[in-house]
Amino acid sequence: MVRQSDVYSRGGIITEKNSDYCTVRLRLPAGVISPAQMVGVARIAEKYGRGDVHLTTRQTMEIPHVEPKNLEAMVVELKENGTPLGAEREEVVNVVACPGNDRCRASNIDSISLAKKIDEKHFGKDMPVKIRVSISACPNSCSGEQFNEIGITGICKPIRDPGLCTGCGTCVQYCRESAVGVKNGTVQVDDGNCIVCGACVSTCPYDILTSESPAYRISVGGRRGRHPAVGKHFITVTSEDLALEVVDRLIDQVYRYAYTGKLLADQLDKMDFDVLKESLMQQLPEGSILNECI
Ligand code: SF4
Ligand code: SF4
Ligand code: SF4
Question: Same domain for 36 and 126?
Fold first, then answer.
């Protein structure tokens, strides 16, 4: 049983402008919710709020206008519904992901699966600073991952395999960055313009443009808000397991060395991320890091 005092000490309970009421935020990794859970949320919103539900920018839901005396019972019902209390303080908050491999034709990675794994391991962890994690399965960045403390982008680097390029130009049509072209009947990729989206890969009828397995480009220290900033490239790794390991290490590093009162973006220089990166590069298996993909 959750006591009211415990409820107040947890994230996800937000005092409203009219302080007689609270907004209750839910935990919905990657914004995925079943129809049955939606029915449950609607019932709980009718019972404890005023019947409305707010969809947030971090792919979760909030139930507004809840009286504090009802929080205890409401939190229990939310947990039973599989949509437990969320987070909003200095902690790891709702993990965001684009549809990725589940649905999107542009995707390189399974962003929803990765989001759920990160959520399972880190959601609600008390931290010195708020940690927002967001994942986009390709550089179109629909989840705005680079504006989060930890951002992960699924990328795919084209490789020119040996073979006879006919100069047909099919692959060229797929590149929106003018990074692939045909010169003297031979296909060429301009690494300076290529954003490693992978759109050209597999378009060649002769399999001249292929790729290695997709990779996970991880950035750190992005932020939204009044002074938005793009996160800094940290490391690019070649498997989901390695991406999870890097996220573990980043969260551990922030837990150990960050201090409360400033966003992570404002204390990156004190975080020794270069030292952490160096140590990861020595520990991770050879070939598992793609540092050229920045
Ligand atoms: S980021 Fe890429 S994979 Fe994800 S939804 Fe957008 S276009 Fe699709
Ligand atoms: S990976 Fe994307 S940006 Fe790079 S050449 Fe192919 S289509 Fe163009
Ligand atoms: S790489 Fe393939 S698709 Fe591209 S121009 Fe050559 S033959 Fe055509």
Answer: no
Domain of residue 269 covers 118-132+143-152+217-283
- From the CA of 293, the nearest ligand is 2
Query: Is 143 in contact with 272 (CB distance < 8 Å)?
Result: no
74 and 127 assigned to the same domain? no
Kindly give the distance from the C-alpha atom of residue 198 to the centroid of ligand 3, in angstroms, as a whole number: 15
pTM above 0.90, yes or no: yes
What's the gap in Å between 190 CA and the centre of ligand 2? Answer: 9
Q: Could you tell me which residues come within 8 angstroms of residue 279 by beta carbon, excluding any fewer than 6 positions away? A: none
Which of 221, 242, 241 lies closest to 232 in space, CA to CA? 221
Mean pLDDT by 10 residues, the chain (294 residues): 60 94 97 98 97 96 97 96 96 98 97 98 96 98 98 95 87 94 89 94 89 93 94 94 95 92 88 83 79 55
> Would you say residue 162 lies in a domain?
no
Mutate to test the pocket of ligand 1, among 96, 101, 103, 104 (most ligand atoms within 8 A of CB): 104
Which residue from 134, 258, 272, 108 is spatially nearest to 196, judged by alpha carbons? 108
Residue 256 lies in a domain: yes
Ligand 3 atom, smallest distance to 166 CA: 7
Residue 203, domain member (yes or no): no
Number of structural domains (the chain) is 2
